[in-house]
Amino acid sequence: MTQPAPLLLPPPRRLTRTGDGLTLAPRGHIIAPPAVLFEAQTLQSALHAAGLDWSLAAAGDPATPHITLVLSELVGHPQGYRLFISPHSLTLTGSATGLFYAVCTLRQLLMQYGPALPGLAIEDTPDFPARGVMLDCSRDKVPTLDTLLALIDLLASLKINQLQLYMEHTFAYARHGAVWAAASPFTGEDILRLGAFCRQRHIDLVPNQNSLGHMERWLKFPQYNDLAECPAGFEPPWGGPWRSASTLNPLDPRSLELVAGLYDELLPHFTSPLFNVGGDEPWEFGKGHSRAAVEQRGGRVYLEYLQKLHRLVTAHGRQMQFWGDIIIHYPDLIPELPGDAIAMEWGYEANHDFDGHSALFARAGIPFYLCCGTSSWNSLIGRTDNALGNIRSAAENGLKYGASGILNTDWGDNGHWQPLPVSYAGFAYGAAVSWCLSASSELDLAAALDVFVFRDKTGTMGRLALDLGNVYQIVGPAHSNGQALAYALQMTRAEIEQYRLRAPLVEPAYRVDVSPAALRRALARVDEIMQPIDGSIMQRPDATLIISEFKQAAALARHGARWLLLATGDEDESPLALENELRPLIERQRLNWLARNRPGGLEDSLARFDGLLVEYRRAAGG
Question: Is the dihedral of CA 359, 363, 365, 366 positive or negative?
């Protein structure tokens, strides 16, 4: 009987079926040179999980059952590998990195076939040398070490080779304790442990410290406030209430002194040759202390600040990465960027102009990554089709214009309410298309999630996660950077009414349908999707937690729909009933948070529910 074709994540570039396969003996030897001990141990663990007891050796009797790891640079790519299975041999060939990836592929085969492996030959190389994931660890949620170690293992198994922990105030800088006191920050020891764990798994742990904008957690303190571009705060360009200072004054030499001190302390904990200095969204740029300079010299003020950061980074022997959203507005200045600085061109909608922006960097000879996203933030339950379209566009345009990497980001805007597993689909798809876009065109993502991520024997969770992430389309996919059911939970009745009245006036592509009929369809669809979750059988130690997290995210999305119904005049919704529903949801949010994350930031995040409770009491006449 012919064995079914293997499902692999990411799909390999070239797989050929070669005839009869190999049934592994209960015992045998893994023959590997000492330089790849960890890779051999990883294979040994995979064999043990398949019920086989194989030992390690650097040499052995070829007449006994054996698997050979051949350390070789002659496979056409420093991360490439060959995997060959015939009735008489099983050989893995590659550099240390390539052998690790070969072991990851063989482990996936063992998960599907057990000891009876199909005959096949795989020759595999990646599209992009850098395939990264970035986690937001500053918008309230700082993961525990156990959470990060488990996630790193998962990402490594999918051939992700770069990890960034986005930080604003969540490293325990020795001279700045007031800034991180309530944040449960990463310590130097944490970073050293994470770095060692990553290096074993061929992941580059890249330091990431924002250095211009998004500094509100610093500038709110009196000892730093006078470094702000607008110390008294600013009116955000998107409207809404006055906001506190968030951007350093790029002309004040003390701003650079502060940043230099942070680099001096942070960077020795990392071995990566790269360093992401941020620089995105300096909302107040040119509106305060630098107003006159920007009026006179425009974007050159920003460029000069980047050049100063570059000199600091270069002095530490690192290569600078920086977010590309500001310099893209000054295309004439792009050729003046330092030639080795890596522009991180980001955009998180499926229609983001990766094409036009990539062309600018490529034409100027500036190395660049394309940075897409999981679309988990401001969504609670994800935005599946937007995420997949955004990630695929990044890979397509990265190949078209010669990007040196893909960075798949996972942000935590507005309290980081979404649970980590909502992002798994985006991580998995990003891993697939950044490894080999052409081979991923027919990927059954739901099945791959079930087998390799959720480990669900019933085949429930992969489809559930993808379908739940598409509920946003019922109430309109147009909401940029989030979706209506999530945004509503942080909006007053007056704000909802203002938005509803304004919606018919905007372009059709930006409208969101929050009609009662649409909201009731969304409620029914969430219930339908979630119905089978308790029947899932996930072979993961956190299976019970994942079920709780998806139930919580779905319940909050349902609550958002019910609040929208109440706020727009639906008489079937009661403010008292909604308040009674919300309070236990807040408590479950607390418990789920603490299961994966440190306590710092939790109270700030939960406080974002307070406005909704006030609205319910007001609506009830309290």
Answer: negative
